[in-house]
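#dry-run=false #mode=assembly
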Amino acid sequence: MAPVWRIKTCGQPVPRHLVLSVLLTSSLVGTLPAQEAAVARAFELERRGKYAEAADAYRLVLLTHATDVPALLGMERSLLPLGRSADILPPVRAALALDSTLTVAHGIGVRAWAELGQLDSLKALVERWVRVEPNDDAPYREWGRAALLQRDRGAARAAYHLGRERLGRPTALAAELAQLAMLEGKYGEAAREWVHAVVDLPGYRSAAQSALGKAPAKARPEILEALNAARAPVGRELAAGLQAEWGEPLAGLQLLERNLPRGADAEVHAYRQFLEQIRAQQGDEAKQVRARILEAIAQRTAGPQNARLRLEAARSFAESGDAAAARRMLAGLAEDEAAPPDLAAGATLTLIKILAAEGKLAEAEQRLARHQDGLSGEDVANAWRDLAVRWIDAGNLDRAEAAVAHDQSVEGLAVAGKVRLFRGDLRGAFERLQAAGPFAGSREDAAERTALLALIQPIRADSLPALGQGLSALERGDTATALRALVEVAERLPLGAGGAEVYLLAGRVEAARGRTDQAERLFRLADNADALATAPAAELELARLLVGLERVDEAIELLEHLIITYSGSALVPQARRLLDAVRGAVPRT
Amino acid sequence: MKRRTFLRGTAAGLAVLSPLGRTFGVPPREAPWWLVPMDDAQTDHLKAYGVVFRLLERGGQGEWFLNYRGGAFLVPADSTTTRDAQLAGVTLEPLAERELLDIRAEIAEANMDAVPLEKAPKVAVYAPPNAPPWDDAVTMALQYAGITFEKVWDQDVLSDAIRRYDWLHLHHEDFTGQYSKFFLNYAGTAWLADMVDRNQRMMRQLGFPTVPALKRAVAQAIRAYVDQGGFLFAMCTATETIDLALASADVDIAANYADGNPMDPNASAKMDWTQALAFRDARLVLSPTVSQFSDIDGHQVNAPALRQPLGSYTLFSFSAKIDPVATMLVQNHRQVIPDFYGLTTSFTRHTLKPSLTVLAEEAGTPWVKYIHGEQGQGTWTFFGGHDPEDPQHQIGDAPTDLSLHPHSPGYRLILNNVLFPAAKKRELKT
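#status=ok
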């Protein structure tokens, strides 16, 4: 055992090596760097989990520098896991004897007495602290916090209210009382206290919003009532933000607009804060609200920024489906020769998109042709492709083909390939879709192209207009026509030469429509030994269908058949995963 | 080159390249065995244990080639085993008698051994009937591998029903009866209220005065189960708290909220560590508000001032022929494995009983990760941490999907424990 020297350090023996260490440190004229070094050594001991040694090391620092705050806090931390919180009290007393205003020492003392369950001593220490700092709310805050650590909410509440009463400020310790009320499920009270807290210190605003935002749904009316009844405008601002957060952005905006602060700058500030709160929200209502806020800010903003805000508002209106409002925002912008070029271009493109969305494709084409010199090449190409897709949806394949006739990009080839496919020109479609490759458009687009290639590859004919008509109807969302055409094509094709693939596609469409009987029949037709590439896909689709119908045993049998029979298929991992899921081997996702 | 020679060479080359040729399908007539490789050639290490387990369940027999290709298994090439492995996506390699002889010769000359596996152990998982908002690594591993198990709880343990099982797993239970000290941070949550309610109802049903008293009795029954030959495996906080419960037979170590009385302030000095399985001389944390039980855990994940960062742990190597049990428990295709937190993450060296075997440690730190020991006629194994593939699992997090971690070396350690009771007893020398 290491030798111990009995020197008086708050009644505890101290190991010799630590005494030597500190004496050596002290001999270096007790400079501040030496004190810091001693604290650093103690901290290192603490970090390594040697709490007893760390506590001793901190104590030795405090022998010569009783008010050293890092050492006091470090000793408190080190004693906690040792279950020796009482040992911190002599150093606390020594520190306070030297500096009775040392807030940290008071706080440590309060926590130590609370940990020891000595409530009378705790109260005495708080009262002593209050005498030193009569206008400070820290003693009551620490008192309440210590009570909460002991899970005594009543004592915490009493401490906060006592502080509020003595300090003579009805809003003192509001944030603490708000959090306490949240813990106890008193949401109306929490809302009122949060308003006080934000009025006193605006920095609490986001904390208030965040805390109240997590309240359960059934507490929301009570919170909104309390916030709306608050005298301070911040209550309504918080209520507006919360309504938006809880999925009612329009109601939130209406509340905000009924209670806007006075002055253009204050209004813009309130709008911008609200805009931030709903920025991440999806859905048409949120987009509409965003657009309305941008419009409101634009009305209060002059100069070039005004035009940009209007353009941004127009885009949001267009995204939300409100073409009229988008047009209103864009009025004059596209033709405004004084507007910066990028702004005019943005306005033109937005207007073309609005026209296309309204089905005015010819007008959109004319506008694009008229203004394309003022747009970037990439923007022009994108706009023509968008129009081509719209023409496809409208069933006008000639106009669609014309729109991308000069586009040799992979994106253009992808669109042209679909046009050829819908015409029934399988060879032309195959060449273009294959040339488009995997990088044109989004990942979903690439997956769709691959599926189309897989569909037409086994078909030996170069041209099959009936298939094109079926796929075109499918693209337009006319599933009934599409299914009739697809099934007729499948019946005419040999199963091993495209028939199974077309049955599989038809089955998927039926499954998506919820017609499970029809889907099952078509999947079983597609599951044919003559179509080795298609059969595992058909079995997997059928298994998924059966799982959805809770015919689990049949699904398991089918999946096992797939894995064993088509062990080289790329679908085997998916089949295994589904098998795991239905057997409960992995969590369902 | 003659056309015939060219074709023959090409066919041979394709056969080598083809995964089918090396894995699935009916083995050639001269290959009556499958080798289940457990090195990097294996496509699903975790499900491989399930294939072997189900073989034993069907009354078949196999062998565990300790230290050979990551702890490979030898199974008969019957159609059921072949189909089972194929469905599970487990790699099999055909093995002719001559190749098997070569392997046996290699095993005989190196630090390897062939342990017969003859009977599937009956597996039980100690878990409350409700679903707590955290996952259990062992339950997930068993479900993923397809190993059958049953759930038991307090009434089964105290009525001796657990003696029907060969292997018992404990996970997150707090055997000190303090609900994992979740009271401070999770007060008011529905799941905690449910946990308290269930435990208190069980306490009344079984006639105990407090939940800590009930849990201590359960801990003592589990120790008796091990004494009489059971295999105990525990993870996370169950490791630490079962020993705290066992060592505190005459001491109140539960906080006021759990049993109506504060903890004995001198509890650490009064503990009887002779009753514990793995630990000794631990210092208890008396505060009910600190999410920490004792200084057994080296990482203290929920004590911000004490929390230690995660590193990696290293599995020890043992002599396969002399110490087959320890060797079985560390079979793996990785020796250094990333660490993961739990309410109890690791075990400080100074609290370990000298008689136990350390299976894995974090070199250079004051803690170890994975320990094993004997108690009476049975054995226990403690593995610190919560979920080997979710290093910082939080309450309410989604359970880990093991199909995304089929090679998990941490989960392999769990499954080693499930399978090792299947080993033929006379071979065990530890």
